[in-house]
Amino acid sequence: MIAANPHSLLLGKRGASPLLSWIVGFMVLLAVLAAAGGAALNEAVSGWGKGLQGSVTVRVPAPEDAAEADALLESVLKVLRQGVSAERVRVLPETEIQALLKPWLGAQADLSGLPLPRLISLDLDISRDAETIRALQSRLAAAATGAVLDDHGEWRNRSAGLFLFLRLLAWSAVGVVAFCAILTVTLTTRSSMAAHRNIIEILCLLGARDGYIAGLFQNRAARAAALGSLPAAVAGLAAVLALAWKVAPPDSGELLPWLRGMSVWAGLLLIAPAAALTAALTARWTVLGTLRTMEQN
Amino acid sequence: MAGVTFHFFIESAAFRRKWNRPRGRTETAGVQTVTPEPVRLQNVQLRYGDGPAVLRDVSFTLSAGSFHFLTGESGAGKTSLLGLMYLALRPAQGRLFLFGEDAASLPRRRAPELRRKIGVVFQDFRLLDHLSTFDNVALPLRLQGRPEEEVRRHVTELLEWVGLADRMQARPPLLSGGQQQRIAIARAVITRPSLLLADEPTGNVDDAIARRLLYLFGELNRMGATVVIATHNPRLLSEFDRPVLHLENGTVTAGRSSRTPSDDSPPPEQTS
Predict the structure, then answer these.
(1) Which residues pair with B101 in a beta bridge?
(2) Half-sphere exposure for A100 (CA within 13 Å, toward CB)
């Protein structure tokens, strides 16, 4: 039969790149896993950040004398209610405070004899209500000795640094994988060009434009990358689902607490076509660049 | 290769319609337009890397519609000179003009346009072994983006003319040297080039077939193509009275292939 598509014939079937498919496949698998990790971390940090940012805690020392302790708490509440509406102020009951300590002291520990401070939670946003918080801090310092308004700044800053580091690690992994994939496609294309040098020369002498020749390699690289990246992306997504299922809290009722956003999944799904597109563009630029130096050698 | 095949090729009315178009000088409503010479070399020197000069101070002009033999001993530089003319090589010194374009200053993006005016029969054929006979001949048309239906029609017609209609799907390695040569010739002429360069096109065939091939090139030339044939076959030269460019010691001298002054091609104009 006469070939209808000359593009499929010019470089021959033997010129296909199964190795490129495998390499790009593994790269995509790594990229999907790293990106999923980065996205989950993003979601988690975002959720925790919102939780921490939206509340401030006032710690009121508890003198041994109960009446004195109650009076101190009242004076603190009085100060707080001057700056914040009553419904945004919540005194944590003692049972809740003890529950907070149980992870450190054990479920069986008897906390009844411990002088626990009283805790008051204020529904304030630390960035939006910064002025209010500063005013409350100064008034509390004057009115209630020992009472401390904690905006979780120190813990938040340390956590933010750690999470930023972990996120950067995840996205760096994606970046390194992408760079390696580009490097692989470049080297594979150069090697393929060397193997097909005779064909390229004949095509040039017959009047082929650089874009036409680049198109041959570009299409081949895109096909090889797509062949490798699509199954790899599917495998990667399956692995992410399996891991998320495995680590999800049994009573959460949700499969993926940190991967709920559709944009996360859309992003992960786009990795495979992005890999094919990157491979195609890399091959094209490599061929165009190499052709410029090839003719006279 | 059957002689009748080439006879049909040359005498075919369709072939004449395809090829019989004015080239070189055209007259429209009494106004004569002179197209630029297909090839003009001015003091051209060619060397490979730091090696000695293969060509030195070569100057000549080929007018449109001319037919020349290029002769010289093996290794004299015939293939290199042809390589200059089909833009595979660039002169180390001097100037080379193809269809009025200075090859030295020709932007890379314009080279394909110029190459499409040139048909080349390579000494070693340079066919693509993984393509069929049909696809090899179709390649120049496809590179020009011709519609597939047109490609199919023209290639089939031409392969019939060169006697390879029954070998369309065969790949070159399975064909004889003579058959491969005919594919190479068909590929060179399929786009009706203005300049046809053939490097030892009779090197793989016996004298009878060689004469028929030269007869074919002569007919193409009569229909307007400028033809340059590199050969060192003295018997062919003696049978065809054509202008000759003779290469020796890296320089070109002009002459004629036969002493019979019966040819209508102008001798190459030598400039210095």
Answers:
(1) B98
(2) 9
- State whether A204 and B115 contact (CB < 8 Å): yes
> Alpha-carbon distance B195 to B134, whole Å?
23
Q: Residue A2: its chain B contacts at CB < 8 A? A: 132, 134-135, 152, 168-169
Once rounded to an integer, what is the mean pLDDT over residues B20-46?
67
pLDDT digits (tens, 9 = 90+) for A208-219: 999 999 999 999
Q: Which of B139, B151, B153 to mutate to test the interface with A (most CBs of A within 10 A)?
A: B139
What is the CATH architecture of B3-125+193-256?
3-Layer(aba) Sandwich (3.40)
How far is it, in rounded angstroms, from Cα A243 to Cα A32?
13
Ordered domains of chain A (ranges, CATH): 10-50+156-294 (no CATH), 56-151 (3.30.70)
Chain A / chain B CB contacts < 8 angstroms: 61
- B134 phi and psi angles, rounded to 5 deg: -60, -50
Decide if B135 and A209 are in contact by the 8 Å CB cutoff.
no
Q: Amino acid identity of B185?
A: I
Q: A4–B148: do the CB atoms touch at under 8 Å?
A: yes
C-beta atoms of B115 and A206 within 8 A: yes
pTM of the model: 0.73
Q: What does the pLDDT read at residue B258?
A: 58
